[in-house]
Amino acid sequence: MNKYLVLFVTLLAIASVSISAMAQPLGAQRTVRARIRTMGVLGEGLAISPSDPMDFEVIKVAIASVNVVVFGEEKTVRIGVLHFGDQKYKIKDVEIGNASVSGNIYENETQVGSFSADSYVKGTKEIWAGSMTLDGENYNIYVIQAPRKAKPVEVAERAFEYCKNNPEKCRAAVKAVGKQICGETGNCADKIKNFCSQHPDDARCKALHRAYCATHLSDSTCREEMIKYCKEHPDRPACEKLAEVYNKNLKKRPNMINKAPEWFKRLRSRLKTATQLKSGKQTNATSAGGERGDKR
Amino acid sequence: MRAVSIILLLAIISAVFISGCVQQQGTGGQTTGQEIQVEDQAIQTLENELDQALENITMEDLENELLAQS
Q1: Interface membership of A134 toward B (CB under 8 Å)
Q2: Residues in chain B closer than 8 A to A36 (CB atoms)
Q3: Least CA distance to A92: which residue of chain B?
Q4: What pLDDT score was predicted for residue A168?
Q5: What is the pLDDT of residues B34-63, one digit of tens each?
């Protein structure tokens, strides 16, 4: 009797150990999911040979910083995909700046090229313009940024992040737009995240998303939202930051300023005045400080 | 009886070791495998974004064309 009991227990132990060993990776694999953290380039355009304008190819590009949860662990990867005609390439070693992007192009883990581009505003659209080397050939590239609306989960997480980092401003923004989501005390970031994931088009969630976007202009979805907003409300302080971003690229190509859209020119002149005022104040403060110093 | 117990005990120990090895192999290979899985998943997400976005462009362009004509 004892013999059979020992045998049964042993077999049970072996079976459970083996099953748990095999089942763990399978179970963990099921948790793989990804979402965009910072969108860089997303669109379609042309790659044109600088030596022969008739040597061109259609390109489709998507580059972003992506959060991937795998085996229960969240990893952030900056990566992209390039379609050059029928060929597909991976873009790695990605750098996403404020309206600028660069990276290396790979085919089957072998580097076959590189690229860099800056974005310029035309009308209410962004155009990426830059250069690319692929398989030893040089190209000028032009990509029209496709319109993209932030997904509910992104709105919720951005509202959460904004509220976590700016609890007072968050409370004020929520209150200003309408009835409060949270009580009078405590940090309501979690409540807002939950609410905004279910109601991404709610005015309060939109306001919080915009507030986040005003300080995260390296994200093209945010810039798109701010362009729409600043076209309507060019006097808002948040729009100065947007003007600064595009102004940085326009400074490299001064002749493009004339071709910039009217709303941006207005924003730019406001930025210029604000900068002059700031530098004037600083000069006054310095000279006043200097005078005080002299008097001492 | 004692011999059977010893054999069974050895079997348990072997099972534990084998399962440990399986896990370790998984963990060792996981680093590269996991990186590839992360990249593939990210690329798949970007491909979906691209498809959706470029579909939107077509629809939007069509709408704008229709509005311009009317």
Answers
A1: no
A2: 45, 49
A3: B39
A4: 82
A5: 788 899 999 999 999 999 998 865 566 657
